[in-house]
Amino acid sequence: MNLGDEQLSHVSHPNPVPAREREALLRNPVFGRVFTDHMVTIRYSEEWGWYDGKVCPQGELPVHPGSLVLHYAQEIFEGMKAYRLPDGGVTLFRPDANARRFHNSAVRLAMPPLPEELFVKSVRSLVRTDQDWIPRAEEGALYLRPFMIATEAALGLKPSAEYLYAVVACPVGSYVQSDASAITLWASETYSRAAPGGTGEAKCGGNYAASLAAHAEAVREGCDQVVFLDAVERRWVEEVGSMNVFFVFDDGSLQTPPLTGTILPGITRDSLITLAGDLGLKVREEPYSIDQWQADAESGRLREVFGCGTAAVVTPIGKVRSQSHDFTIGDGEAGPVAQRLKSALTDLQNGRRPDPYGWLDRVL
Ligand code: PLP
Ligand code: COI
C-alpha cells in the first residue's frame, strides 16, 4: 500500500480547546508554546511504503525507547507559516519549496523522501482543520512544523527501516523577544555550525542541538544571537542563529553568503533576493569575511545588516562582538532597507499586495 494521492483520513478531536480559551491563547502566544487541536501523522515502512496517513487529535507519539532517532538523531524538520488574508481566506507561502528542502534533507539523512505532493497535502489538511487557530494580529501566523523521525527499534547504527512523519502547528506572533530595534551578535571562535561535507544545508535536528552551546556562549557574553563563521578558515560569515544574513552597502547593493553546502538554503533568503531585485536593489551571493565586515562598518560603507527566516522574518542586526571584534553597524538601529524588504515580503505573504510569482498557495 502506498498513500500516493489518496486522502488522509480525519479523526476529529473529541475535546477541542473551547473557543474562549483559544481566543485567549491567540492573544500573545510565545513562539512554539501553544499547539493546535490536531496534528498529521503518516507512517513509513520499507515493506509498506507510506501508509496510515491521518489528521488526528494532537497528542503524544508512541516511541519505542530503542528508536533510532533517540540514539543517533536520524531526524529532519521544516518550518513554514499559514497567513490570514484580508478577505478572511488563508494561504501558505511557497510550500513546494519547503517540500523540496524536506526531500533534500531526507536524502542527506538517509531517510526515504516523502512525496512532495503528500508533504504539501498534509500541511494544507492541517491548516484547514485548525483554521480557527490562525491569529488575526498584524504579525500573527500559524507556524507549521513538519518533521520525520526514525522509529525502528535498533541500536546497531544504520538507517531506520521505519519512520514517522508528522506535522504540528503553533499560533505565533513575533519570534524575536527583544525590545531593541536591532539585535547584537556574538561571533563564536569556539564553535562551528557546519563543515564541508557535513549536514549544514540539511534541516536536521542535530544541527540545532550542536548550535545550543554556541548560543549559550553568546547569551553569556550579553548578546542576542550567535553568528557562525566557516569551519575551515574561521572568517567567512555563514549564518546567524536560525537565520540567513544580508549586508546592505552605501551604493544600494546587497550581499549574502553563497550556498556552498554549509548554509541552510533559506526560502526567505531566496524570496528576498527576488524582492530586492523588484525594488531595484542588486544582490551579490559572495563570501564576506568578519574582518571586512568590521572594516566596512567602521568606514561607513556598510549601512545595514539583517537576518531572515520564516520564524524571525527580517531581523535587523546592530552590533557584533567576538573575542577580537567589537563594532556597530550604522547607528546600531534598524535601517530602512531591512524595513522596506520586510514590508515587501510580509505584504505579499498577507495578501496586501499582488503576488506576481505565484508564491501564495491559497488553502481556504
Ligand atoms: N538558517 C537556519 C539555520 C535556519 O534554521 C533557518 C530557518 O528555517 C533559516 C536559515 C531560514 O530559512 P527559511 O527562510 O527557509 O525559514
Ligand atoms: C524557522 O525559521 O522556521 C526555524 O526553523 C527556526 C527555528 C529553529 C525556531
Task: Write up what this structure looks like.
This protein has helices at residues 19-27, 68-72, 95-108, 116-129, 205-220, 267-278, 290-299, 336-349, and strands spanning 9-10, 38-45, 49-57, 75-77, 80-84, 90-93, 141-150, 162-172, 183-187, 225-229, 237-240, 244-249, 254-256, 283-285, 302-309, 313-321, 326-328, 360-362. With 364 residues, the chain is an alpha+beta fold. The protein has two domains: 9-172, D-amino Acid Aminotransferase, Chain A, domain 1 (2-Layer Sandwich); 183-349, D-amino Acid Aminotransferase, subunit A, domain 2 (D-amino Acid Aminotransferase, Chain A, domain 2). Strands 1, 2, 3, 4, 5, 6, 7, 8 and 18 form a nine-stranded mixed sheet that branches. Strands 9, 10, 11, 12, 13, 14, 15, 16 and 17 form a nine-stranded mixed sheet that branches. β2 and β3 (49-57) form a beta hairpin. α3 crosses α4 (116-129). The longest helix has 16 residues, at 205-220. The radius of gyration is 21 Å and the shape is globular. Pyridoxal-5'-phosphate is lined by residues 79, 239, 242-244, 264, 266-269, 309-310.
